[in-house]
Design a protein that fits this description.
CATH superfamily of one domain: Dimethylsulfoxide Reductase, domain 2
Shape: globular
Strand content: 5-15%
Number of strands: 27
Radius of gyration: 26 Å
Number of helices: 26
Length: 737
């Protein structure tokens, strides 16, 4: 057998092809193009996580999806998908999918619905929206969204007259990072972050779990960097997958990260290990910084972080030796302790003084394609937004805060009765497991006049909705072009590989049909999404037919430079055009212009800090029911240090329930994993399990929910992010009590 033939068969079999009567002799006689034609190959980009890797959906002659593979031209994945990406077909075949519109028939939360037609569902939603608008104003309609479908409902809600729109991923995830970098470098980092990991000589991961959060391209690049001899420094109270690949693991005491960052700055500045030329040319406020960090010696930090002084000095020297090809990774989920913008400011400043901005192996200068959109009328100007309900807070925030909108949905004696949110659209995000302090979220829901949930699955939030709209999966629909920054400007197409299953529909269609019922036709000028996509593609010299064949198109400009010349001046988008080490903007708002360390509460005796994280085969709480991915991980475990297990007489895989500092007990039990890989003062669990909706037959009751234990929320005063790592738990060993 020829090598090509062997590889062809191996690829098909390992990829999960059911050959459907095709015998090997027929297969061997086919060319690669004939195989594509036989099975059908359609471009897509993944919806299982926000990285949105581009790929191909393979369909056999019976019209059944067989597998998903990566697109070689895509810079997000380089042709290689992670377990989530290849397991995406499980979302299509999941028997628990939402199948038809549902309308509530009793009180919220009691899971009593009846099936309805799309026409009836839209009529009810449109009537409720109009009633709310007459009584409270159109601004009283709010949107929470995550994923591709949110774009279309954003258009609908803005056209209706409201700008109360939020992605939970801002206030609950990367908002502190974006605000911190914007107030240092003049720009946020966006996604994918412009990190030149593949050429980095030193990568510092402080609360960033590459390999477990599966930021695909970054994981690949870290692997390449390791192969080239790069030094990896991981700061984490848990011996994570990344820590196992590191030269240095610093098992820091939780809640003390700012102390370590300040101490690293002290060492680097005191020893003159910073990039003098870069700082002099491109930074301002260095003298204030130099004075500020004088007290923060390694000895000072040791008493706080438990990291020995010699380790702090040694790792700082590693950064210096590698600079400017060094990255202190800014992280993604950055809402921890309520002082998160200041912590990320420290990360930004440390990167800046090492001179890595615009340098190979540091931060590259990203490029993003410009795709024109069809001109529609201007959106009506809202009379108020969520900002008007916060008493002048969060002036540095441009994006919506999900927790502020929740607050605006709960009437109080002090609240402005003319500025209340009364209707929610929740698109592709399970707010019950996404937002901390579930009790607060449910209180807000009970005050609503309308809650519409748009999802593919019967997540917990759909059980509280008045109307549930079943979205078809990403494998069954067109979506807007993926236009994202990278080293090269690029676009990617998603198209349906099969017709929508059951009575599910794409979000584009839902938003347009609702728009027509609300008299907003001018904001939805195209009758089909194919028309809209083709119009946009023709503006950039392409077409829908071309993109169906290519999937990904590179649109880089020849003059784009990834790096700036060493020693040259770069114009930053700040008032002075320089990096602001000392932030006059923060100072003007009444905040510390330089990061400071503040001690955080410690657990009471018998309680342990609750740490949580990701697993490479799951995304948040969205995939715990996916039959392909539950085969890889069907429940979470509670990591407990052996010393603590001995005190409590815990056994491996013993079931326990958790009780937090506020007396909240987990609904479901979780199995104990006894391991030296976690500090004695902490426990750890993977986020996204412990689903309480029985309609999720694969996920119901499997493991425990970390969100349920997060009742102490520490708000970041700068940008309103919800710090979630200040919660402590103890064990209930009698799970039947």
């Amino acid at each position: 057998m020829q090598r090509r033939e062997f590889l062809k068969i191996s690829a098909l079999l390992t990829g999960g092809f059911a050959l459907s009567g095709i015998i090997f002799e027929e297969l061997l006689a086919m060319s690669d193009e004939e195989i594509k034609a036989k099975f059908g190959v359609y471009p897509t980009y993944c919806e299982i996580c926000f990285w949105q890797c581009a790929g191909w959906t393979h369909v056999n002659k019976e019209g059944i999806i067989q597998k998903i593979t990566g697109n070689d031209k895509d810079p997000h994945c380089n042709g290689r998908l992670c377990p989530r990406g290849t397991g995406g077909i499980g979302s299509y075949f999941d028997k628990d999918r939402l199948k038809t519109p549902l309308i509530r028939v009793n009180e919220r939360g009691q899971q009593k619905f009846r099936e309805a037609s799309w026409e009836e569902a839209f009529d009810l939603i449109a009537k409720k929206m109009k009633d709310i608008s007459v009584k409270y104003g159109p601004e009283s309609i709010a949107l929470f969204h995550h994923g591709s479908g949110g774009k279309y409902f954003t258009n609908l809600v803005k056209a209706f007259g409201s700008d109360n729109i939020a992605k939970p991923s801002f206030a609950q995830c990367m908002g502190p990072r974006e605000v911190a970098f914007a107030n240092t470098f003049g720009t946020g980092l966006s996604s994918p972050e412009p990190l030149d990991i593949r050429d980095s000589k030193c990568l510092v991961l402080i609360g960033s779990h590459l390999g477990e959060n599966m930021h695909n391209a970054q994981v690949q690049e870290m692997s390449d960097a390791i192969d080239k001899g790069a030094t990896i420094i991981t700061v984490d109270p848990r011996f994570s997958t990344a820590a196992s690949k590191s030269k240095h693991w610093l098992p820091i005491k939780p809640a003390t990260d700012i102390a370590l960052l300040l101490s690293w700055m002290n060492v680097i500045i005191t020893n003159e290990w910073y990039d003098k030329q870069f700082v002099e040319t491109n930074c301002e406020g260095f003298e204030q910084l130099k004075q500020h960090i004088q007290p923060f010696t390694p000895e000072w930090a040791y008493g706080i972080t438990t990291i020995k002084p010699e380790v702090i000095v040694k790792t700082a020297k590693e950064m210096h030796d590698a600079s400017p090809s060094v990255i202190i990774h800014p992280g993604r989920h950055t809402t921890w302790y309520g002082d998160d913008t200041q912590r990320l400011r420290a990360v930004a400043i440390l990167n800046a003084i090492l001179g890595n901005w615009g340098q190979r192996g540091g931060f590259y200068i990203p490029e993003k394609a410009e795709v024109p959109h069809f001109h529609t009328p201007e959106f009506p100007k809202p009379a108020w937004t969520w900002k008007d309900t916060t008493n002048g807070k969060y002036n540095l925030v441009d994006l919506g805060l999900s927790n502020a909108i929740v607050d605006a949905s709960i009437p109080s004696k002090d609240s402005d009765k003319t500025k209340q949110v009364k209707g929610w659209f929740v698109v592709g995000t399970n707010l019950i497991n996404t937002l901390p302090n579930t009790k607060h979220t449910l209180e807000a829901i009970q005050h609503l006049d309308l809650l519409v949930a748009v999802d593919t699955m019967p997540m917990e939030i759909t059980g509280w909705a008045d109307v549930v709209l079943p979205e078809c999966t990403y494998l069954e629909r067109y979506d807007s072009l993926r236009v994202s920054q990278n080293r090269e400007a690029n676009i990617s197409l998603r198209m349906p590989a099969v017709k929508p299953m059951y009575n599910s529909k794409p979000a584009w269609w839902m938003a347009r049909e609702l728009g027509l019922k609300l008299g907003l036709k001018d904001y939805f000028p195209f009758k089909t999404q194919e028309e809209e996509l083709n119009w946009e593609l023709k503006q950039i010299g392409s077409s829908l037919e071309e993109m169906k064949k290519e999937g990904v198109k590179i649109l880089s400009k020849p003059e784009h430079e990834l790096y700036i010349a060493k020693g040259s001046k770069f114009e930053f988008n700040t008032d002075s055009g320089k990096i602001q080490l000392y932030s006059t903007t923060l100072e003007a708002e009444g905040f510390n212009p330089l990061p400071v360390y503040t001690a955080h509460p410690e657990p009471e005796e018998g309680f342990y800090r609750l740490n949580y994280g990701r697993a490479p085969m799951h995304t948040f709480s969205r995939t715990a029911n996916n039959p392909n991915l539950t085969d890889l991980m069907d429940e979470n475990l509670l990591w407990v240090n052996p010393k603590i297990a001995k005190i409590w007489d815990l056994k491996e895989h013993q079931l326990v329930k958790l009780k937090n500092q506020d007396g909240v007990v987990s609904t479901f039990a979780i199995k104990v994993r006894i391991t030296e890989r976690i500090r004695h003062d902490s426990v750890y669990m993977v986020h996204g399990f412990g689903h309480a909706d029985a309609r999720l037959t694969q996920a119901y009751g499997r493991g425990a929910s970390d969100t349920e234990m997060i009742t102490n929320v520490m708000l970041d005063p700068i940008m309103g992010g919800t710090g979630m790592r200040g919660n402590f738990v103890t064990f209930i060993t009698d799970v039947n009590a």
